[in-house]
Amino acid sequence: MTVPFLRVAPLALACAAAMAPVGAAEIEAGLRAEAQRSGSVDTLIVLSARAPKSLLRNDGNYLERRRNLVDTLRATADVTQAGLRNWLDAQGIAYRPYWIVNMIQASLTPRQIEALAAREEVAKIESNRSYALKQPVENGPLPDPSSATQSDGSAPAAPQAIEWGVNKVRAPLVWAAGFTGQDVVIAGQDTGIRWTHAAIKAKYRGWNGVSADHNYNWHDSIHVAGSSCGADSPVPCDDNGHGSHTIGTMVGDDGGSNQVGVAPGAKWIGCRNMNAGDGTPARYNECAQWLLAPTDLNGANPNPDLAPDVISNSWGCPASEGCTAGTEIKEAIENLVAGGIVFVAAAGNGGSACGGIIDPPAIYDASFTIGSMTSGDAMSGFSLRGPGLGSSSVKPDVIAPGSSVRSISNGSDTSYMTISGTSMATPHVAGVVALLMSANPALKGDPARVAQILRDTAVPINDSQVCGGIPATTYPNPVQGMGRVDAWNAFQLATDMIFVDSFED
């Protein structure tokens, strides 16, 4: 059932928009030259108007606040984009509007760029660049799951029943207490998902045990061909394998000897935001918008009540993908968190030098940023260290198992593979979040409280590296944050809060 949206008075929004600063729009450096060379260039037209914060509710439960947020964002875009859309229509320019960030994507000629830059409602015109395989792939391409050896030359890892990373974060202790993530929805936005894999099919929210309904449970932000999934895939599909592997670490369990997931009782939904590993700001923002208010397969009837409780994000948006100012996707992520959704993000891979965390979304204060550790309780050599560029808080926030992590592969519905990266550490933490919300449902819709519990209960590892002038024995620090995430410690604190909250009430 679709939940009706609250209506926000268009006049109030128009008045708020009228108060936004106007003037000549900022055009990204090099964009004019790029358009001149190619005749046209894919752009993001960012409007000045923002949703008036004064109209956002701070009463009611998190679902009521989320509905109001979505309604306000949508109404703001509808009112303030109207004139611009009319101009684009008159020019015969195809475009795609967004509301999670007040912007429009369109391919523009040099002359059209100049015309739009002169419009008072336009704040910036940015590139929506597309480069191949810029997600944080771990030390090279994903290994072929059908090969006899892994990419490092070792034999494929054998099943461990409960995988080492799941044990390392002490998830089985929480399972034994009766909480496996039940009644929690977890999401992945990545290269896609092999939804029919034996370890995750039963956990897909769109599967009832007999038939599949992908409405509100899957979205594809890739609208061009160019990979095995094609364009606008109506069913969950993975053209790379990276996204499937991360979902497996969140919820995977085949009922036998492959317990690869931290929260096997949770349900999952997903969005493909990369085309064979190729992302753009528009694709990232489109998935963020869908996750804040999932739609049917036609992109209609958005329902914020069906948003996930936590999102795992094992991707990055470097300058080569269009995040040149570092803010192209920031507002979308802040709106997800304002909607009560925990946003867990990979710190990124590239080595152990200090100051390596420089790409969105890991650098954002709204992101809960994850570094990687080994099974031997050491920092992974590839895990980027902070301080995070532009972050007011220490990054990473915590670390989790990310070296040689075994999870599902895209090779078949029963295949597995072992790879490494902060991409693998991040879904461990998203799974722990699901366990906490399962144990204490009052944590749903409260990302700040969840993040604080994870920080307060993390376990530091022994590491002597100093970054940012912060001693290795001071926590948080820019190497490991507060230390290894610990599901059992966090569970105990989260369940203690149930008693405290009930006593205070």
UniProtKB/TrEMBL annotation:
It comes from the Bacteria. Residues 133-157 are annotated as: Disordered. One of its GO terms (biological process) is proteolysis. InterPro entries: Peptidase_S8/S53_dom, Peptidase_S8/S53_dom_sf, Peptidase_S8_Ser-AS, Peptidase_S8_subtilisin-like, Peptidase_S8_subtilisin-rel. Keywords: Hydrolase, Protease, Serine protease, Signal. One of its GO terms (molecular function) is serine-type endopeptidase activity. It holds the Pfam family Peptidase_S8. Residues 181-462 form the Peptidase S8/S53 domain. The active site is at D190, H242, S423. The keyword DNA repair does not apply. Residues 1-24 form the signal peptide. PANTHER family: EGF-LIKE DOMAIN-CONTAINING PROTEIN, PEPTIDASE S8. Belongs to the peptidase S8 family. This is Subtilase family protein.
